[in-house]
Design goal:
The chain is mainly beta. It has a single domain, classed as Phosphatidylethanolamine-binding Protein (Alpha-Beta Complex). It has 3 helices and 10 strands; from the N terminus they run H-H-E-E-E-E-E-E-E-E-E-H-E. The strands form 2 sheets. Strands 1, 3, 5, 6, 8, 9 and 10 form a 7-stranded mixed β-sheet that branches. Strands 2-4-7 form a 3-stranded antiparallel β-sheet, with no helix packed on it.
Length: 210
């Protein structure tokens, strides 16, 4: 949708960005002694481009994800994906997936897309009020956007609505989060109507540690 914006709009908004400090990962101040999760993906390395097939310039399939280091006392895991560089007051939410088992785990490719979601998990609302994965769609000429894949482990007692939004997730995290981690993937639309394939258009090989 945003690929149709004039390049001039992207340039005009280039200095307007929500910022990493407004992501949930930075907003939730975990108490001393709380754990750190390792978050990885077979599709991209930290701070490298997302494959085009995960974006609005491709089929828009959510990338695979893995997290390790979940504390034994965790009851559930929440995954939240936000655009830290959206030209909005708060980061744009691209996916929320709550109610995952409170243990080390993973999501296969497409797991955050509505049709492929785990029936036992809770798909939340993205910033466009849809349910499931909102493919990255930065304005042309706005520069590199950082998409923050955040994973939180929650202690027992948290409760979320059937289709949680960002505010409900933030409230739960502030009370029950006991460990967190994040992975950042990037994506940029260049100027002009002709789009060159972005770097990282396929899945990286290799096996993540169990």
């Amino acid at each position: 949708m945003l690929e149709k914006l004039p390049d001039a709009v992207g340039h005009a908004l280039r200095g307007q960005r929500s910022g990493l400090d407004h992501t949930l990962f930075q907003r939730v101040d975990l108490r001393q002694g709380m754990g750190a999760l390792q978050v990885r993906s077979l599709a991209f390395e930290d701070h490298t481009p997302l494959p085009m097939n995960c974006t609005a310039d491709g089929p828009g399939i959510s990338p695979p994800l893995q997290w390790i280091g979940v504390p034994a006392r965790a009851d559930s895991v929440i995954v939240v994906v936000e655009d830290a560089d959206s030209p909005t007051p708060h980061p744009l939410v691209h996916a929320i997936l709550a109610g995952l088992p409170g243990e080390d785990g993973s999501l296969p490719e497409g797991a955050m897309n509505k049709a492929e979601a785990d029936p036992d998990a809770q798909l939340g609302r993205n910033s466009f009020l849809g349910v499931g994965w909102l493919p990255p769609d930065p304005p042309p000429g706005h520069g590199v956007h950082r998409y923050v894949f955040q994973v939180f482990a929650l202690a027992p007692g948290s409760a979320l609505p059937a289709t949680p939004g960002r505010d409900a997730v933030l409230q739960a995290l502030e009370q029950y989060a006991i460990a967190s981690g994040c992975l950042i993937g990037t994506y940029e639309r260049p100027d002009g109507s002709v789009r060159e394939p972005a770097a990282g258009t396929g899945l990286a090989g290799g096996v993540l540690p169990s």
